């Protein structure tokens, strides 16, 4: 079995794969950075709760956008699972051609999403939208060229900015409002967050298609914690909640010699 870990700004999101099948998935808050022992003991406990013996883990891969947490998670895997993780970073085989000015600046989570998207839709132009702490769009050509994309504040980040940056606006639940017209302050904020995000995504997708794919129709894949909110908006061709984990699984396969691919 293979353990794939995505270290994000809000959560540490992980999954265990038995072959191509995701057999267990779990999250841990990353608001307070864990120590090696804290994360190691959490790993042992959660794996056993999920009916997986820690010794059954044969390989680990990690994507991280939080350097402060990466060392602790890596150390925990080495100390408690006796596995040296594959860290998704420059020099690791991905199957992608990075056509950007600074390849080392591309987030590991975005690379993992792109790897998985290409595996799902080979020889297809792709736009991958990840709606997490930040909302990101990745542009990948049918030749597996990663062209770049867009980064903008995510729904949760925008909501907290309003609540913390103003004197009277409250924090609100993020949901899909039935109407754009809000009749309370909370409804006003919820409408602005949701429909503002929908409009932004549609405009960005329109511009990216015009600039990069004027003659083809790319597949649009949604992932991330808020993607399900937009399921009825006709933005995505498909929503794949575990896309980043599947990208990490493919990265392991690309970087594991066939003789030891357990």
Task: Report the mean per-residue pLDDT as an integer.
Answer: 95
- The number of distinct helices, counting runs of at least 4 residues, comes to 6
Poorly predicted runs are none
The CATH superfamily of the largest domain is known as: ATPase, nucleotide binding domain
CATH class division of the largest domain: Alpha Beta
- CATH topology name of the largest domain: Nucleotidyltransferase, domain 5
* Strand line-up across the major sheet: 6-9-8-7-10-11
Topology record:
Layout: E1 2-7, E2 11-18, E3 21-29, H1 36-49, E4 59-64, H2 67-80, E5 86-87, E6 97-98, H3 108-120, E7 126-131, E8 134-140, E9 145-153, H4 155-165, H5 185-212, E10 219-223, E11 238-239, H6 243-255
Parallel strand pairs: 1-4, 4-5, 6-9, 7-10, 10-11
Antiparallel strand pairs: 1-2, 2-3, 7-8, 8-9
Keywords:
262 residues, alpha/beta, Nucleotidyltransferase, domain 5, 2 domains, 6-stranded mixed sheet, 5-stranded mixed sheet, 35% helix
Walk me through what this model shows.
With 262 residues, this protein is an alpha/beta fold. It folds into 2 domains: 86 residues, Nucleotidyltransferase, domain 5, CATH 3.30.420.40; 150 residues, 2-Layer Sandwich (Nucleotidyltransferase, domain 5). It is 35% helix and 24% strand. The protein contains 6 helices and 11 strands. The strands form 2 sheets. A 6-stranded mixed sheet has the order 6-9-8-7-10-11, with helices on both faces. A 5-stranded mixed sheet has the order 3-2-1-4-5, with helices on both faces. Helix 1 packs across helix 2 and helix 3 packs across helix 6. The chain is globular, with a radius of gyration of 19 Å. The termini are close together. 36% of the residues are buried.
């Amino acid at each position: 079995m293979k353990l794939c870990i995505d270290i994000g700004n809000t959560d540490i999101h992980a999954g265990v794969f038995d072959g191509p099948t995701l057999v267990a998935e779990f999250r841990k808050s990353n608001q307070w950075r864990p120590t090696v022992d804290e994360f190691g003991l959490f790993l042992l406990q959660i794996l056993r709760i999920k009916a997986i013996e820690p010794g059954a883990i044969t390989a680990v891969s990690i994507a991280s956008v939080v350097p402060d947490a990466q060392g602790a998670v890596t150390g925990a895997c080495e100390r408690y699972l006796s596995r040296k993780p594959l860290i998704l970073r420059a020099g690791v085989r991905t199957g992608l051609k990075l056509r950007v000015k600074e390849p080392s600046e591309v987030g590991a989570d975005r690379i993992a999403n792109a790897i998985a998207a290409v595996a799902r839709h080979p020889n297809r132009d792709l736009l991958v939208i990840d709606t997490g702490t930040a909302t990101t769009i990745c542009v990948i050509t049918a030749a597996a060229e990663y062209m770049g994309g867009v980064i903008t504040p995510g729904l949760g980040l925008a909501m907290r900015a309003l609540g913390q940056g103003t004197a009277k606006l409250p924090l609100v639940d993020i949901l899909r409002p039935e109407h754009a017209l809000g009749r309370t302050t909370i409804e006003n904020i919820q409408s602005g967050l949701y429909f503002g995000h929908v409009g932004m995504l549609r405009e960005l997708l329109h511009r990216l298609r015009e600039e990069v794919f004027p003659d083809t129709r790319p597949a649009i894949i949604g992932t991330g914690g808020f993607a399900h909110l937009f399921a009825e908006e006709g933005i995505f061709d498909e929503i794949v909640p575990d896309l980043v984990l599947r990208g990490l699984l493919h990265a392991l396969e690309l970087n594991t010699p066939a003789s030891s691919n357990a």
